[in-house]
Fold these 4 entries.
Entry 1:
Amino acid sequence: MKFNSIIGRYLSKQIVFTFLMVLLTIMGIIMMFDSIEALRRISGREDTGMDYVFKYALTKLPETIDKVLPFVMMVAAMITFWRVSKSNEYVIIRSSGVSVWGFLKPVLITVFAVGVINVALINPISSKMYEMHATLKYRFVTRDPTAMLFSSKGLWIREAEGNDKILVVQAKSLHQESNDVLSMKDISILEMDQNSQILRRIDGLLGELSKRNFKLRGVHIFQTGKKTQTLPSYEYKTSITLQRIKENFVDPDAISFWELPDTIRFYQSSGFRASRHIMRYLSLWASPFLLVAMVLISAIFSLTPSVRQGGVMFMIVAGITTGFMVYFSSQLIYAFGINGYIPIWLAVWSPAAIVMLLGVTFMLIKEER
């Protein structure tokens, strides 16, 4: 069956419409539970109102949807296939000489296109909302409505120094010289009080972090009410360590698909591992194929010549169980990849490939019956 045929366009519209309906329903349920969680968080807080509840639930939504999207597509495909089976449209289409693969072709192409749109267009928006959600939670904890959670380009790190001083360190480029020495260029150190008011700023052209000590060169020190100091070198004691910097790298979910390659190159050129970022980048590449695989799995359980054969409850339970098995097994394989037990590319692509091969195999067996 051609994708642009009348039946092909009809099936494509059916899967897209059902997918949007299921997605909106799931979004509404997720927002309801997140709103309840936000209401619980603000209980007893006079400095936070309902606007926080709305922003909290809205900005957290993309993070949750990203995790459940394969399930949403699977449920949408099961509903679509069940409808065409119930109305005997599947029987009529097959009787006209169309094979099961000809029937599935327009659906699979449409689902793959939805996956590409999600990665190329929706993901950049979701990553920004993910970062907004992290900033919102940070402002809630610090009780500062203007506080910023630094997590953009280059290196940003925030660290408390005692009970009355906060450091914010930024560097445009960095490189790990050895196990305990980190070299940086264009480094800035901001000293702030608990109210996020700047006390002093120290800029250096070059710097090294070694054993809780910043060794800066080409230094300018700015302080309110005092003359700017220019020094050839300066040593700054700190509690920041190399391990602390590694832990504060940007969360991969807060970086869009288009920005991940530059971020990965930045971290690798700095001498750090970027396994989580590589895993995220490859996962986005594999996501359209995983959606297609989930549709094939749903076709096994819900694409039957006639619903009068019964087994609707079995179809629902078997489909949902299979979806959960795919999810948990993929997370287990991802964990192996992150920890270096298996190659990252294998950890990312194997779940989609295995599920797709299983779907094709069972559909071939079903076609021969």
Entry 2:
Amino acid sequence: MQSRANRPRAAAPGDPVARGRQRGNLPSRTMVGTVAATLGLVLTLAACTTSSGGASSTGSAGSGASGNVPDAVKAKLTKLLDVPALESPGPAVAVSTLKGKTVFVIPLQSTNQYNNLIDSAMEEAGKKAGVDVTVYTNQGQTNQWVAGMNQAIAQHVGAIVLSGGTDPRVLQPQIKAARDAGIPVVVSQFFDNSAKYDCGALSADCIADIDGVVPAPYQDASVADADWIIQDSNAKANVLVVTSNDAGPSKGQAEAVKKEFASNCPDCTVKFVDVPVAQWTTGTQSTVQSALVSDPNLNYVLPLYDVMAAQSAAAVTSSGKSAKVVSFNGTPSVLTLIQTGNVVAMDIGQNLAQIGYANMDQAYRLMAKMPASKTARDVIRAFDKSNVGDAGTPPQQDKGFNDGYLDDYLKLWGLS
């Protein structure tokens, strides 16, 4: 899907991002974080076991002996390398009744490829249905999200979508105000697929007081990253995991990684460093490089999100090491690094266009006074040298997946 200029956008106070900017001119990196005012990173490198935080990982090897890859790991990876199946989000929606309404989108940040590709797909889905989509440009600051919510409420839009990881926990008063005004709120790509509904709390593991969600396979993707490393290393890897502890899903992802290595790779060692969201673009490279220099045995780097993959790769190159980088999101710029280089070796990809359509489908259902879908899911696929060509050359946001998603949504919406 091609980006379009001159789309309706609402700029955050003090936002330097121009209205109607061309998405094709985005920097060639993913999920770029807000530039921190001061670079004051403290390296929090902890040599962890995959279960209790010791110096090296321990645990049983599943179905394989020490140094061997368990058959269960091989089977999961074989499936992940294939084109994933689709899942219907629910019954049909008569979107013709929604023409002229507005969906107001507040992305995590407006300066990264991941968010912008999802938002572009939402705009395209809105155009097909005659629904306006306003994307609120921001640099990932809470006060900007608050201002965006207030603007959407004042305009009495049809629905609000917190897109691509925007944290609903810091917007509870505004979400309540939107509900009081009759405006449904959709939260996309913040909650993990495993999150429970109607459980009386709001966290990354428990959904409450939100009208609709489009969850993400964060933990599944982290397990898949670990499995690929286990197989690629013949179950003898020394891994650096780059987390973001202030990002809602990260805690669950880190635990999933620990558990997978503990179960299937007793000869693997796993260490963790933390890079806060605000320092993704200013702190990742130095943090990873320091870790690689401190421990010359590290031979794999696993940043939880693509936003940190390119900088992790740069750290590997700068340190003169031969470590491989694996990550998650499937943004085209990172898939390109797999195609053109040897440092980024694998990425668990998402169909970013499909996420945008899933966001709009959820918004349409709520605006049409229908129940929110609880089967809304995006799919994942592992991309490495063996199949990354399926994503196109250069890679595109929705290639290499089951392209039937578009026809499915148009049929559900009565547009085909």
Entry 3:
Amino acid sequence: MTRPVTAESGFSLIEVLVSVFVFAVIGAISVALMSSSLSAQAVNREALDRTAQLDRLRTLLREDAGQIVLRPVRDAHGAPEHAVFAADADGVRQTGNLARDERVLLVLTRRGRANPGLLRARSSLMRVEYLVREDTLIRRVRAYPDATARTQDSEVVLVSDVSGVELDVLQGAVWSRRLRLTAAGEAGLPGAIRLRYDWAGMGAMEHVVLTPGGVQ
């Protein structure tokens, strides 16, 4: 027997309030789960980005240090640069960089620059600098070791939000804060290069790479 429909038929106020409460709880739980999922994705994305930056820095530093050549180079004015290789934790003094708010830690010439099909009339050498500008560690490359007035440098940000950046070189069994080689035939290329810094959110970091002087 069916219940007759009257003007008073429908949900009671208690039933409506209970339904609204249930839907509100479900909505709150759904929003919380979605917010948690988005936060986890952001954390994972940041961690992956930092890992990629770390891998790039480690790879570039290892390749640069492992292919050092002691070759004299000239600046844009045609004058010989002061060093064929220089490392200084307090900053390498170089003409052209004094006006910038930066500290050049390492200057070297390396081989191994790719030239597929020999399409460009250039050697495989390039000039590389590692420097700190504010809280950023940067790698600067001059495609041609001997600069001209038209030579342009390219820069790549390696890591940001760093502090306490230090670089030293291994001479014999001793780590030294500075080394300058001024002649191509000069002996004394360090056995290794060590880069240290504090990375926000990651703590103290250290990279040690061998040079050709350390693998002989």
Entry 4:
Amino acid sequence: MYSVVSIMRTLESAAFGAEEAPRLVPTSIVLIDDHAILREGLRALLDAERDFQVIAEAGTLAEGMTLSKRLQPDMALIDISFPEGSAIAAIGTLRRACPGTGIIVLTVNNTPECVHAAMNAGAHGFVAKDVVFEDLLSTIRSVCSWHALTAQSLPSARLQGGLAVRRHDSSAPKLTSRERQVLVGVAQGYTSKEIAAKLDRSVKTVIKHRSNMMRKLSLHDASAVTRFAIANGLLVP
């Protein structure tokens, strides 16, 4: 969680270290979270950035949806859990109602299952609440860039902010088709036994493919595999 100390230090740095720069149109942001103190802290931090402006905040899903539909912000930061229920279903509705809005999920629950559900629902980014503020900024800016790229019909990258994810490019180790299938299975939360049944292979064979895949990509656990799959668009429905 962003602390009061980190908020004050960031604001002081912005106040005393900022240099004159040309005016720009800031990215408009709507905050949707049921914790008022978190919203206030994020608003203060984001508004201190030249390229961001929080234009509204909401403490409930319903209010957040209404504000987003009316204001059509560039970005919506939304918690995944509310007293009235999960925001997963609302993400899809928000995507349809606000096609020009990037959606970043904020949550304390950063399990692979939660990440997968949020991204499949249509979120463009995923940020755990225990990351440093700079990681949130990086994710917001990356999602903004993603929107600019999609306007040119270029490939998009799924992002999970606050977690180191290496993009798979021509310099990355090549996976076999079977290793790639196992990677996706692991990222979707299936066990080696379940993946073996789906692929009609032995568990021993799947374990071998899984070990080779993780070694080639320098991934050390299932969570890292999920993050890699999301970052490289492998779980896009």
